[in-house]
Specification:
Helix content is 49%, strand content 9%. It is elongated, with a radius of gyration of 22 Å. It has two domains: 1-61, no CATH class; 64-94. It has helices spanning 10-20, 24-29, 50-59, 75-93, and strands at residues 32-35, 43-46. It is mainly alpha-helical. Strands 1-2 form a two-stranded antiparallel ribbon. The mean pLDDT is 78.
Length: 94
């Protein structure tokens, strides 16, 4: 679409990209650039910043401590039980 000549003007396209990537963590992990002077030459560049993604994973993702009295359970069994409980809770809320 960007290369077809039917894309938005540079400023409008920039606003649309800014809105999509307005969340700080999205902007950090998915840097986006727009190049070109006319709709026919606009190009959208993007990549995943793996260092930023790894940092975010260490800071935020997967930070749960599960406590159980099921001492005979294996780690995968504990995780499955935890996830099943969450699914059941979301299913009954609707």
């Amino acid at each position: 679409m960007l290369g077809s000549g039917r894309g938005r003007r540079n400023r409008e396209l920039g606003k649309a990209v800014d809105k999509i990537t307005s969340k700080r963590r999205v902007r950090d992990i998915l840097p986006v650039t727009i190049t070109g002077d006319t709709p026919a030459t606009f190009r959208l560049g993007r990549y995943i910043d793996h260092a930023a993604r790894n940092s975010l994973e260490e800071q935020i993702f997967g930070k749960r401590i599960l406590i159980t009295d099921g001492h005979a359970w294996t780690t995968p069994e504990v995780i499955v039980a935890f996830r099943s409980q969450s699914d059941a809770e979301f299913g009954s809320a609707s």
